[in-house]
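dumping the sequnces here before i forget
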Amino acid sequence: MVRLKSRYVLFEVLLSPHITNADEDGETFTKHNILLSHHRPCPKEISIKSLIQEIRHSLQLNFGDYGSGKIGSLLQLKYFSNNTGTGIIRCHREDVDTLVASLMLINKVGDIENVIINPVKVSGTIKKIEQYSIRRSSKLLSLLNKSRKQSALRVNLIDDFATVEEDLEDS
Amino acid sequence: MSGIKKNHGNNGGKKQLNQNQIFRRQKVRNARTIRTEAIHTSNKSKNEQNKSLSEDGSIIQVDQFIGSREFELRQLQYAMLKSKSSSSTRVFQALPRKLRRRTASHNVKRIPKRMRNRALKEMLKNDQQSNVSSKNASTTNKKTHGLSSSRLYRAKMSVKLLRLASKSMSMKLALPSHITASKYNVRQRIKYLKKLIKESKNTKQPTTSDVNSGRLNNKCGSYDNTGINKLAPIPRGRIKYCKRQRQFSWLPTHIWNAKRSHLIKRWGFNIPWSPSQKCFKLAHRLGSGVAASDGALCMDTSFMGTMIINNISENKSLLKQIVSRLTKGRASLSKYFGSKNLYEGLIYDIEGEESKILGPSNILWVDENEIILRLHPTIYSTIFTYLTKTFSKELSIQDCRYSLASIAIRGAKALTALSSILRSTSNSKSFESFKRVCNVSDYNVLPSKLMFAMEVIDPRHLSAPKKIDNKNPVNVEDIISISEDQSLNGEFSKVLKKLTTVEGRKQSYNNQQTLKQLSKRRQELLESKTIYEPSSQKRIIPFNDSSDPSVPLFLTRRPKENDWLLIIPWFWHLPIWYQLNRVPRVYNMGLRQVQQLKYENKQLYFPDDYPFTEIGVLENSPYKSNSLRAKWEKKTAGKRLNFEKIPNIHSNNLPAISGEIGDYFSCDWKFLQLVQNGIEYLKQQHGGNVPLIDEKKTTQFDNKHHSRMVNNFNDLLELYKYITDDSNGPSVESQLPTTPISLANGKAVLKLKTEQFVNTVDITKKPLPVTAVSCYLVRRGHPKDNARVYSIPEKDIPYWSSVSQGIYKANGTLNNHCDIPLPNIINLIGFVTSGTFNLADGNGRCNGFIASKHLHNNNSFARSHVLIRNSGTNIYRLAKIETISV
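..and the predicted 3d for all of it:
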């Protein structure tokens, strides 16, 4: 018996940058500010239903009836979390390239404009996708913590310099 | 047909699912969904979200970001676990390997108690018939035939015998004619049954020897089976199983091991060969003395024969003299005789004129007139019969093969595991010191001589193994004080006396209790709760000094073997074994693991790595080579390796030989002896040169010695072919010594003299001195058993020394594909007895033997390196050698 071969695609939904707030130092375009503004939680309007609808629409638009019919036969959104904007789609093994292309061509979901859907990883099993996603988000978290620490360190360094100067004067 | 059509119509061609299938499908679906976090209130709608962002700034956003991502992380991890566990539908599939049983799917008794209810439910759901459908089923079905197992067996046997009597013509003819068949049958039956009953009555009392006669002193049927000045008979098992033990007797743990290990029938015993579960890495990790060891490996070594020799003559130094002769003066040194260290070394056959090495042995001096001698079963009877025959008046020898059992245990937690099952009967100094060191996991800190002899209570008194809490960690003073009172006096000798005498062992079985009796006592204790008050005494049946048996046991460290040896009376082995294997991280092992660990520690394993002994030769050549050959011959001619047609093995081809040399499936020591002795002979004949072949002449015969003349190397190979050819009759082979090689160990290598060879008979008769070496492959590849060892030819030394440094490509990586110069056939110096990939080194390593002459080589590189080629291949690997002392 031949097994149905499928592929899983990990993607993230990036919203348009929205930097209105500044850092404590007054800098707006810091690394972690850009990161945060892209990874804002998705609004309620982006849901599993609307995403699937939008993907099908994009397939129809870009690949015609044949493309949408072929790919749409086995298209499942396995997981989507609004708060993190990550999701997992399942499709047929042959169609994964077309699907990724159609994801790339989406720029709005429902009423929300300027949306980028970023396909991150393709894998044959959902387990590996999950493992990758875990690795990726823990990396993101550590990056965030690091940039926070760095800003704190910068303040300390400035303080240090002041003390050093004083010492020199004393000696 | 119409019904099926109807169904199709109703369901749109889909298969109809029953309730159970729907439930299961739903369960899988539930398991596969990944939960998402509820949408934050702040971003419920687009407008609100924008507002909150502009107001709150980054701090809240970061927390949210982190929080939601952590939630997702957890959920994804959980989803992976959930989908894994949901796929196992039956409860026993979730069990770890160690607890899985073949029959668990239909026999709930094979599943741990805590899971039985669920298992029963699952069986009912699958409409599976369980043989334990209700709890009282076992009680109602208990006695359907109304006979106990032994009686049933007896009845069946009598029927068989009656049938035989009626069928056998000769028996019928022997009867007087006036006895009719019907009459005869009845009388015969009564006669037989009476006889059987009579016999069974007799066998209930031990008749093995005079000392053993008398009634049993316990309900378990334990008795002391010792042969005094003669070999003890094979122990009687249960009647049902006695037929299978006639040739190969069972160890005490046979039934336990039969469920968990592969057994082999060898040396008169059924010995565990290897656990059924894969354990190559486990054995390395736990037993090889590495830091990663966090458990213990134990093995039932009761197949090793123990004999106790007492000197009963006037001559007080007689025993010392005998032991000195048996071990070539080693075991009678004051280290062993005076300080009573355990001797681990070779034992010799002193029956003939020149002493031959028999194999390894363990000797312990109990006092100056008594020793405990432990031997491998293959050499046991040789020594035993020799001693009983020659010293029948002077020595009293007990054959304790079936009256003393032993456990070998190794690994970091060996002492901890033992301490959690052993409890002393009374205040014991030895037990106190045992308790003090029991948590030491690195035995190198302990003195090399460390022995404990104590009397312990029946280990079954503990309901489960319990660790001894050591409040004070062991320190240097403790270890020094323990090593100081290691003299075998006082309590030590008292316990050893009980272990080494028939009366003592018999006394230890006095009132040995059955499991039923013990559980009854435990039940009584549970009911009267007052006794259970102190928490330390919890779950242990208190020891009753007057009625309960006490077990004498002896525990010693074996520094060479790197393990601990526990010696106990035969019938106390099983209770200890059961409890020991309940300790976590204690695993059983078999002979294969012992061999593996020996190999990893660069030691020789008897008998496989002892080709200089008779037993080792037999093991190598007929036993192992036959089984390998049979395996090879089973394959069709096209699929199997054609050893004769392997090209490019040697740098020059001789007409006498093609392809692989010697016997393909074993270490051909005879071949090595001929090659090495022959080269020496040819050198002496031709002034230092070895002529390979003379094109003008074929082999000539020497009329004076009635043998082939050896004028060049090719003649030597022809001689080998002649000797090993069976069609020339066995007489040629039988004239030769059984061991074509002899061991040259330590200093003997340096003192080695070159032998003088007068004629060709000398070549086949003089044993070749060999030395045990451990070879470490410098580069890739791993050696296999029976690999061939070559010395490096003088002209190739520059090439091979560059290989040992590493030949690199231009991009800095190792070049593994060079054209290698081939050695000549006259460079053959030895064989590999055991080799594989060594986990301890992370590289190929092998133990083998090479001609001792090689160690006299002048070039230091050529002396310390050899080439190794696996049998049936033409690839040579460079290896560094180090000698092993036997």
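The two ends of chain B are 82 Å apart (CA to CA).
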